Amino acid sequence: MFNYFHNHIQAFNRALVRVFSNFGSSLMMFIVIGVTLFLPSSGLLIIENVSQISNNIAYDAELSLFLKKNIKQDQIDFIQSALSKTLIIKKTHFESKLTAWDKLQNKLNLNPLDTGISENPLPDAFFISLNTFNEKEINTLISSLRAVDGVENIFFDAGWVKKLRSILYLSKIGLAFLAIILIIVLIVVIGNTVRLQTLTHKDEIEVSKLIGATNSFIQRPFVYTGLMYGLGGGLITICTLKLTIAIFNKASINLEAMLGGTFILKGPILEQNLIIILIAMLIGCFASFFAAQQTIRKFEIFK
Q1: Would you state the pLDDT for residue 158?
Q2: For residue 214, with 0-12 CB atoms within 10 Å meaning exposed, 13-18 middle and 19 or more buried, which class applies?
Q3: What parts of the chain have a pLDDT lower than 50?
């Protein structure tokens, strides 16, 4: 057990020496990995921020409940009492047909005598704010309200939020395909870099084989090198994300006076940062392991 950990420590130290002895090329590899992972990470971060905004908007969406014209006051009171006891309803606002008619006339500067309208054409209505956006619960509520005596029409005016969520869902799928393509590109780039390193250390590898070193022992430093590439690239991705978000938020605050509002991006949380680093390290590990294994086996074929 001691020899096992000792071998890994030695391989890790050799990998450190290789990374820092060629720090210029290693830094370029860090930047390549960091910038490549920044593209899907930033896109996913923007989508998550927009999704949170759409969720908040959804809670402010209203269910408009229009009553029949000949409805009596006691039935209106009954409906209002039933709405107040419904759990998924956050608040209700009743607007009588007289109030709605006065508002419409004031807004459009209408005169009933000029328009030839002899009676109020508007119905009494309830405007209901929901505390959920669960489609099943909303459909159940609408079905229940349609069965209530005195209810004429029901409109749910948050359909555009569903469309926004569909667009965000499709965007996530697109980002997933982009991430897969970029990960394949990273595997190829890291693999070629590690393959060049194995060719550079060809004499060292052949001597190690002559004294009985196994393939796993020889390729272990290259695997740690790939892990370090991934770690450095992941850290650059996180730093680039934080810098980009800080610049965007500062510009958004400066434009708040002109736009009348602002959109502040929330940065990735600790768990998301760790996931980015872990993904980068796994990519580096897989690419370096595969490249080193294939190259070392070729040395045996050509020997």
Answers
A1: 60
A2: exposed
A3: 58, 301-302
Task: Please state, in angstroms and rounded to a whole number, the distance separating the CA atoms of residues 284 and 277.
Answer: 11
What pLDDT is recorded for position 65?
Answer: 85
Reading the block at residue 24, the tokens are 């210029």
Looking at residue 262, what is its pLDDT?
60
Enumerate residues 6+ apart whose C-beta is below 8 A from 238. 268, 273, 276, 277
Which of 1, 6, 37, 9 minimizes the C-alpha distance to 189? 37
Q: What are the C-alpha distances in Å from 142 to residues 37, 91, 138?
A: 45, 16, 6
Q: Could you please report the per-residue DSSP string of 238-251?
A: HHHHHHHHHHHHHH
Write down the pLDDT at residue 74. 86
In this structure, what token pair is assigned to residue 267?
């940065």
Burial 173-196 (b: 16+ CB within 10 A, else e): eebeeebeebbeebbebbbebbbe
CA 132, 138, 144, 147 torsion: positive or negative?
positive
